[in-house]
Design goal:
This protein is 29% helix and 25% strand. The protein is α+β, with helices and mostly antiparallel strands. It has one domain: endopeptidase domain like (from Nostoc punctiforme) (endopeptidase fold (from Nostoc punctiforme), Alpha-Beta Complex). A hairpin with a 3-residue loop joins strand 6 and strand 7.
Amino acid sequence: MSLDPAAERAQRALVIAEARRWIGTPYHHMGRVRGAGCDCATFPAEVYAACGVVAPVAIEFYPPDWHLHRGTERYLAGVLEHALEVTSPAPGDLVLWRMARAFAHGAIVLAWPRIVHAVAGIGVIEDDGSSPTLAFGRAREGRRAHRFFSPWPTQAEGSAS
C-alpha cells in the first residue's frame, strides 16, 4: 500500500523526530527500549514500528560479533524483508555499512550524510555518515561499502533494485 506524497512526507518527519528522541539512549546489544538501551539493528526497527512504517520486527538472537566471523548477511536479509534498495536516500531512509564480512551497521538518514545511529560503547547519537570512521573504518583499507534502503514503496519504485 502506497501513501500519498503528503502522508509519506509526514510519516518521514515522524521517523526523524522519533529517531532524535532516542539520542542519548545507551548502547545495549539487542536492547529495544528508548532511554534504556538498543543497538544499531534494534534502534531503527523500533523507530519504524513506533511510527507505523512497519509492523513490529522480530529479530532473532545474534552474537554481537557475528559479522567478524561469518559472511552471512543477517542484517541485510532482515532489511530486505521491509525495504527496497534505493540509489540515494531521502530523509527517514536507512543506510547500512559493511563491517568486516557483512553489512552489519545501520542508521536512519536525517538528510544525507546526517544520520542517527547506535554506536557500541557510546549509545544513540546524531553523526556524519561520511565521517572517516564510518566511511573507512579503523583499517583505512579503502572505502567501506554502504547501501541505502527505503521502507516506503513510492521512494523505492523509482530506484535501483
